[in-house]
């Protein structure tokens, strides 16, 4: 039998999911994360889940890992000391940056501009110059380069980024600098912009290359340490790291381009949600991942997540493909408060975190949180996970009672209902960001809810958005780890073209795209993926001539078989997308800016679990009844043990479905049907 391990490291817990590929059987484990060395928590989880499954570590064929090492290095400012080499006259490219200031009017008055990842004193200029078409205007001077690299050596830099003007059109100068750096700065990792982001726009290319160098030593240390400890522990399988765009990289490829994994964690959840929706027969979905501190949402069309061209981590924005995930500061630990000035209830973005956590956890927390409100309303029964977890109801009521007193509300339940309503509205705002504000009607999508707190609020979010069914996968708390375990290797090749359609033929476009596909395919072939098992997809950035921005457009590989109509079809597709986004078209010529090829290896053949069927009677899974409060009314909800539900069972609201890592609330007027794959499909009940 063949086993795959999905591992997702979060801020509080490390989730591990073991999958037996033939039967689809799964085992899961949660262990505390170890921020000082994430590999410790990972190995603890792997050992725990393998012991539960009764297998030896040597039977694990692959370890597929979503990690926040690169993300945390950016957020905590603990990356490497980066030296930057750029063209003479462009030393302050990072300081000038872009003239965007976050916030409302006059935001610049109170917004402290973040320091660049490469300090000005660690930036050197070299004498060279390339034209925009790659022509050499000023040749590189080796002696000048050596002198500047020795200056950086004196600054004791830990990583080197090289971003020369127009090097996207000709990488020769950058590669020569790398050769000289190997001699002058032995052991210092080098990031070349012509490798990291071979596209125009100097600032974006430079900041992305510097970010790659900033996180590279820390990522390499972590990946090498984890791989070594896995080997020592008997795990002989391949280690792969999840990319921000939902694909996988080998450990070696990940350490070479760590900027591609800044959103590795959230991408795993979206990938897992796609796998679950596919099993349930739905191709268009919105993902809803609610944790303790924040909620991540994304939109998926035809089982393909929308991929953005920018990755944002804190104040840093780099040009790297990532799943278009939006985050709002709303989670189970979000704190409710009533400012004295307005006397209006607010929820979040402050969070109680894991320590002390919500008052209901009994760890000393006293601030009212969303979790405490759910306990007061009865949505979270006092005994969870078969009695292994006990919640402190009185502590939750005391915490929420402070909100009721501050607002002069008649009952603690009224305050709790207000907290839940507000956090639901906050999360609705995030869902609208990826749907309505992108021109999509959420009623055309299913809503896949996961994370520890997602299933508790999913039914309410379905009512607010009109997205049905609401799909709650099995083990929703470890879905990110499932996403890691059910995706394939991926590589991307890109090139700036910058040609008006009038000056470009379909045959030239086909040649460019096929060359990019061969380039990315070659790298996957070096990672052990046979060309016959590779799938290629093309994307191009198009704009109207004269515009300062472009829109990414997918290009069907079949179009290349008919080059004469490819450009016309591409123009029509761009016009349709431009009209959808902005409601107008221009009569000027189109212009091709960038072209990309994404090559993906085969997905693993993990068989989905098939539950035994019943006649729809879920009474065998009933374990209790529990009072809940809905719209000011007290009702008795039936409590179900999810592990005892079978395919076809119908759970009619009001109901609470409990499992080891999450709790699902089914509201009155709704029913959850158990799909053969194990997911709960919540829909309104027709009157």
TrEMBL record:
Pfam families: Hydant_A_C (PF19278), Hydant_A_N (PF05378), Hydantoinase_A (PF01968)
Domain Hydantoinase A/oxoprolinase: 205-486
Signal peptide: none
UniProt xrefs under InterPro entries: ACX-like_C, ATPase_NBD, Hydant_A_N, Hydantoinase_A, Oxoprolinase-like
GO BP: any one term: glutathione metabolic process
This protein's name: N-methylhydantoinase A/acetone carboxylase, beta subunit
Domain named Hydantoinase/oxoprolinase N-terminal: residues: 4-184
PANTHER family for the chain: 5-OXOPROLINASE RELATED, HYPOTHETICAL 5-OXOPROLINASE (EUROFUNG)-RELATED
Source organism of this protein record: Saccharomonospora marina XMU15
Domain of life: Bacteria
Acetophenone carboxylase-like C-terminal domain ranges (all copies): 506-673
Molecular function via GO: 5-oxoprolinase (ATP-hydrolyzing) activity
SUPFAM superfamilies: Actin-like ATPase domain (SSF53067)
GO cellular component, one term: cytosol
